[in-house]
Predict the structure of Branched-chain-amino-acid aminotransferase.
Amino acid sequence: MELKITRLDNSTQHVEAPDHFGTVMGDHMFVMHYKDGIGWHDAEIKPYENLSLSPAAQILHYGQAIFEGMKAYENNGEIQLFRPNENFERLNRSAKRIAMPTVDVDFMVDALKQLVDIDRAFVPTEEGQALYIRPFMIATEPQVGLDVSHEYQMIIITSPVKSYFRGGLKPIDIYVEQQYVRAVRGGTGFAKVAGNYAGSLIGQQKAADKGCSQAMWLDGVERKYIEEVGSMNIFFKIDGKIITPKLNGSVLPGITRKSVIEILQKQGYTVEERPISIDEVIEAHEKGTLEEIFGTGTAVVIASVGKLVFEDDKEIIVNDKQTGELTQDIYDTLTGIQFGDINDERCHHWIEKI
């Protein structure tokens, strides 16, 4: 498929990342259209603009939408992507789950590289900052009957960003949500479906009311097994062991999660991917064996957790609210690879240079 490129007449020369995550957009966007019987067509990189949709577009009524999140990093004048193929492969798995068309992964990675290259002025050069990339697909067919859409748009926008949490790696407080659930096995929890995040916002709101940064979700059946946190997967270091919830169909298979597990294994650690209950974490804290908790995700990278807060205001303090040694090491290693400061031959295939 041909990729048409229309450039802005006066492109921005340099942009600083705003304090609030994801509020400034790149000068250009990628858009591609789909129609049953034709397939994907009219792929174009063009100046950033508002979308024109019918009020009857199915995305507005039935939420048929999926998305991804990735970043581009600057290192001594070079720009690189971190495992972009993994993101588009996951996007395809999400698409299949809610009856949307899949995309050609190689074509999308190439189009993304060209988009980032055109808007390279938006890639921050300051330490710890990056260009956040948001690919998403929406159903656009104008009809209000409940049916699978026959028309879609695939879009990519970009945004220069600082750390997701303003304190950087400073430990955050997490609220343990025990009333609502995020997903169940057989549902859409493993996919990056927009509706998953809409349903989680009430937990985020409750977390904010408790003075916490994120909400931790428990399973939807027994309501005791930890699944994930609002914008990240979660890891625990208990009595020297590293544990993360097993991918059971309701937990998002995070790219950062996968990368962290691979890094830890290459460093000689054993990572247990298994069910872990909130009671096990409480018991470990009471025994003094709960050493560290950290989250992983594209937006947050690595987030140190310093406190768990419960509905009844019970609290668990983790590692005296200090960033743990393992958490710091994983953060340094992962960001070193992403920004090109660590030249690890075992991870060369993770990096796509632009």
